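Continuing from yesterday's entry. The apo prediction looked reasonable, so today I'm repeating it with zinc ion included to see how the binding region is handled. Same sequence as before; SMILES copied from the compound registry.
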Amino acid sequence: MSGDGTTLLVTGARVLTPGGEWPRGWIAVEGRRIAAMGQGRPPERHRAGADVLDAGGLVVLPGFIDLHVHGAVGVDVLDADPDGLRRMARHYAGHGVTAWLPTTMTAAGRDLERALEAVGEVLGPVDRGATVLGAHLEGPYLNPARHGAQDRSLIRVAERAEATRLLDSGIVRLLALAPEVEGNRWLIAEAVARGVTVSAGHTDATYDQALRAVADGVRHVTHAFNAMRPLGHREPGMLGAALTVPELACELVADNVHVHPAAMRLLLQAKGADGVVLVTDAVRATGLPDGAYQVGDQPAIHMDGAIRLADGTLAGSVLTLDRALHNLQSATGRPLAELWAATSRNAARAIGVDDAKGSLEPGKDADLVLLDPELRVVATVAEGVLVHGGGGRLRRATPTQAATHSGRPPPR
Ligand SMILES: [Zn+2]
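Holo prediction written out below.
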C-alpha cells in the first residue's frame, strides 16, 4: 500500500516543527515517509485510502531516538540475543522511541563481537518496535579511574586488532572512550575516518585534555556529569569543556537520580536545547518490578526508580525517554517547543542520520510520537507504521475509500 497516496493521516494535533509550533495541524504519511503536512484541516485528497489517526488534544513530536540504552524487560544487549533485542525495541516503542542504538558496556572482545552480530541481525525496522540504527560501543576503552559500574578489570587501552575488528562490523555508529588515554587517540582518528561519532565517556580528562580530544575529533559527551570529574573552578575537566565548547553535544540521563534538576538547568542554559541529547542509559531491569538484578556480571538492586551496585554506585538507569522529557521540562520550566529536539533531532544529528530522522518535515521518515498533555505516550509511529497504541483513535481505511483513491479495486 505504499508509494501510491497517503497511507496514514494524523489530524487535529498540536505539531512541533523545526519552524515552530502549529496549534492544530495534520501530517500525511506515504509509505515510510512524511509526504505532506500543514495547519488546519487536511486536504480531502489525503483522506482517501488512508488510515486516519485522530490526534485531537495531543501533541505530535518526532519519534524519540535513544542513543544510549543497554537493556530492558529482562534483556541486555550483551545477551547477544536477536529476539531479546526485538523485545527491547517493542518496550521502547511503548515509551515513544522510534529509533535506537543498542549499547554495549565493557566486556571481553568475543562478547562484544557476539553482541554486535546480534545487533546486525535486527538492524532496521522491528515489527511493532523501534528501528535499530546500529550499535553504540560504550567501552571497553575507558579510564578505570572513572569506571562507574563498568567492569574495571576489563577496561583496557585500545588494541589495534581488537578495536579494528569491532569497527569492521560496520554497524557501530557511536563509540564512547576515554580520549585522554594516550593509547586510545589513534582510535578516535580511525573511528572518525569511518564516519563513527566518538564520545568522551568514563573519562578523567582535564580541561586541556578535553580540548585536545575535540581537536582529535570527539564531538559527543557520554552522560554529562556522570563518570567524569566534577566541575572544578580551577580544573573544569571534561565537564567544563562539555558545558562551554559548542562542538560537543551532551548526553543527559534525566532521571533526577543521576543528575540534580539544578544541574540539568545549568546544562540547558549552557548548551541550549540543541546541545542536549536525552538518553536513558537504561538496563535490564527497566520495565520490570523492583528487586535484585544483574548489570553486566555484577549484582544490582532496582529500587525507588534507580538501580545500584552493592556499594551504591549507579548501574545505569531504569528510565524511559518519555519520563526523561517530562523531568527535563519540570527541571527547566522550558516549553516543549524548545525542548523537543533533545529527544530526537539532536540525537539524529549526533550520529549523522538527520537527513532522514529527527524532525517533522516532508520527505523525512514518518517517525512520530503522540503525547497527551502530561507527556504520556498515546501512540508511536515508526517509519510510517503504528507500532504502539493509538487503537481507539484510529479509523482504518475502508476498501471503498481505497478504491476511490486509486481508481481501481483494492488489492486482495
Ligand atoms: Zn551506559
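Comparison notes:
- The radius of gyration is 21 Å.
- The pocket of zinc ion is lined by residues 68, 70, 103, 105, 138, 281, 316 (CB under 6 Å).
Will overlay with the apo model tomorrow.
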